[in-house]
Inverse folding.
């Protein structure tokens, strides 16, 4: 449930390499689909994110997101890697990610999460 709160996402992920991904993300409800490319819970999830149309990203946006969690002395390190992100979508995509991570940081610190419109890129 917490992912829905900070990442503003509802998703159906078939948990296996080759499984389907269908998600609606962010305040603009961007719909993306794809396939799972790497699956090693709870450490690793890599998937395609293909946007046909609508939301805050132009139709035809295709990228790969890789989420990695690694134990650290005082917690957990989250590494997000994006591959193949078209130049025209870099600014909206990365500014959106900054907003999501601002929300995650607040959640982990026990603070209220910032509202989406109140933060800037």
């Amino acid at each position: 449930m917490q992912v829905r709160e900070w990442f503003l996402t509802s998703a159906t992920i078939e948990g296996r390499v080759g499984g389907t991904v269908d998600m609606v993300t962010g305040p603009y409800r961007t719909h993306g689909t794809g396939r799972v490319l790497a699956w090693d819970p709870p450490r690793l999830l890599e998937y395609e994110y293909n946007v046909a149309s609508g939301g805050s990203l132009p139709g035809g946006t295709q990228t790969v997101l890789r989420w990695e969690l690694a134990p650290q002395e005082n917690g957990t390190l989250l590494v997000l890697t994006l591959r193949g992100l078209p130049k025209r979508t870099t600014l909206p995509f990365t500014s959106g990610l900054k907003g999501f991570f601002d929300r995650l940081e607040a959640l982990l610190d026990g603070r209220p999460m910032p509202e989406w419109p109140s933060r800037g890129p």
Q: What stands out?
A: The chain has a mean pLDDT of 84. The first helix runs from residue 2 to 7. Residues 26 and 61 are 15 Å apart (CA to CA).
